Amino acid sequence: METRVAVISIIVENNEAVEQLNALLHEYGQIIIGRMGIPYRQRDINIISIAVDGPQDVIAALSGKIGALEGVSAKTAYSNVVSND
User: Fold this and answer.
1) Pure H helices in the chain
2) What class does CATH assign to 2-84?
3) Separation between Cα atoms, residue 41 and residue 60, nearest integer Å
4) pTM, whole model, 2 decimals?
5) Cβ burial 38-63 (10 Å sphere, 16+ → b, else e)
6) Residue 66, Cβ neighbours under 10 Å: how many?
7) Are 48 and 62 in contact (CB under 8 A)?
8) If DSSP codes are grouped into helix, strand and coil, which group holds residue 20?
9) Are 29 and 35 in contact (CB under 8 A)?
10) Strand order of the sheet with strand 2-12?
11) Which sequence spans correspond to the domains of the chain?
């Protein structure tokens, strides 16, 4: 199976979506390498960066589901490194 490394950048503007976001991240936990969250209290938002390693379609599905949450935006940057696991 072909896998890629990517980073999903997330901005949470609606704190009510955090529970749904955490449920999604738990569901896709097998591809998550690491996570960094920064609460930006001055703007009342949260900035989250998720490093992942998995099939491109699975990464895209996770990013799409995150971006579909109300008040949450997500963008994904893919590395050019492809592995066949």
Assistant:
1) 18-27, 56-67
2) alpha beta
3) 29
4) 0.93
5) eeeeeeeebebebebbbeeebbeebb
6) 24
7) no
8) helix
9) no
10) 32-40, 45-54, 2-12, 72-84
11) 2-84
